[in-house]
Amino acid sequence: MKFTALTIWLIVFVVLLLAELTTVGLTTIWFAIGALVSLISVTVFNPNWYIQLIIFIVVSVVSLITLRPIAVKYFNKNKIKTNVEEIAGKTATITKAILDVDETGEAKLDGEIWMAKSGDSNTFVEGEKVKVKAVEGVKLIVEKEN
Description:
Layout: H1 5-23, H2 29-44, H3 49-75, H4 83-87, E1 91-96, E2 104-109, E3 112-118, E4 129-136, E5 139-144
Parallel strand pairs: 3-5
Antiparallel strand pairs: 1-2, 1-4, 2-3, 4-5
Helix pairs in contact: 1-2, 2-3
C-alpha cells in the first residue's frame, strides 16, 4: 500500500491529536497544529516533502512559542490552590521567638503550631504578627507584616 503525503500528514495529525487528548498536558497539540497546516499545504500547493517538513517544524515551533503561554494562562485561571499554596500570604502569630536568621521558632497559623524561620533576617518576638512568605517542608518562612 502506497501512502501519499496527504495520508501521512493525516495520520500524523490524528496520532498527535489523540496523544494530546489522552494526556491533556498541552504538549503535542502544537505539533498537531503543524501537521494540520502541512496537511492543508499538501492539498492546496502540493510542495516537496522537505518544504512540507519545514512548514511542519516552523508552524509547530511558532504555535508552541506564541499560543502555549496564552493557553496555559487560560486553562490555569480556575486552578484551585492546595492547602500549602494557600498558606503563603496569610498572617501568623509568633509563639516562640525567632532571634536569629538561622534559628527556628514557632508560629500559630489557623489554630495550628508550625515551626517558623525568618525569611528576611529579622528577629521576631512572641506575640508578634508576621506574614507567611513561603512554606519549606514543615517550616513557615515568615517576614515582617506590612
